[in-house]
What does this fold into?
Amino acid sequence: MLGRDLAAYLKAKGYDVATPSSAGFNLLGNYTELFEQVALFQPDIILHAAAYTQVDKAEGAPELAMSINKDGTHTLVQMAKALDCIFVYISTDYVFDGEQKTPYLSNDRPNPISIYGKSKYYGELAVQEHLEMYYIVRTSWLYGQYGHNFVQFVLEAARQGREIPVVQDWIGSPTWTGSLCAMIENIMTSGAFGIYHAADAGSVSRFDQAVRICQNAGLSVDHIRPVLGSSFSAPAKRPSYSVLDPTPLVVPTWETSLQGYLEQYLMGQA
Ligand SMILES: NC(=O)c1ccc[n+]([C@@H]2O[C@H](COP(=O)([O-])OP(=O)(O)OC[C@H]3O[C@@H](n4cnc5c(N)ncnc54)[C@H](OP(=O)(O)O)[C@@H]3O)[C@@H](O)[C@H]2O)c1
It folds into this structure.
């Protein structure tokens, strides 16, 4: 979802971008062969947006999640070190446990509560341990044109008149890949290495986000049924509060981004 948008965004901005597919560039493959592919391109920046992202499935496949998100990140970190290039690692709000009740700052202590969250956090540690020229970019509740995501799920259910239970006490910062691309470009050209929280501004519950999605798309909200997170059975635990404080980035509000996305997305559907 993010990688395709990011590649298109950066190409349109004049960057020379190489985008190997997972078929031709499997992070679990032979290091030397992968390194040859990367070295050939002589990158100034390696932007690592690949991951095992199936949060619930990861609970039943911890080794696979760890090998892709932790070891796969370490593989790319080694390459960045060997090629002396800048490294950008996309990470997640799921590195936090959700116990906090105020927006998470980039220097707040991670304490992941799921296999996915742990595997992404270990990826962060690999970056911090071996590199100096890095940007760790934590984002949250992503949606965009490609891949399946919450916004599309809600729109599909509304169109089909299918009732969906949506959690009313999980609070986060929904973020459009479109606005995240601009944030990533600003970060990776800043020269101020370190950890960033890159999310659209503000916070909302999943339920209120679903209602806003339908209202903005001119669809009925009758099919959205509020439920408590405690009654929502899923294999992986989620942080009930994972709002990211994007300071010092200047970012749009989640409402502005949602409207921008819907205008683009619904126009494509017309
Ligand atoms: N989605 C969210 O809500 C969210 C929130 C916070 C942070 N993030 C982070 O943002 C980044 C992008 O997420 P996304 O939602 O765009 O993910 P996505 O749509 O699931 O894309 C992940 C990509 O990683 C590739 N990949 C998986 N295993 C690989 C391997 N072994 N070797 C090479 N490539 C591999 C996948 O390729 P195939 O499809 O070919 O397998 C896919 O293209 C990730 O780091 C994720 O952890 C996402």
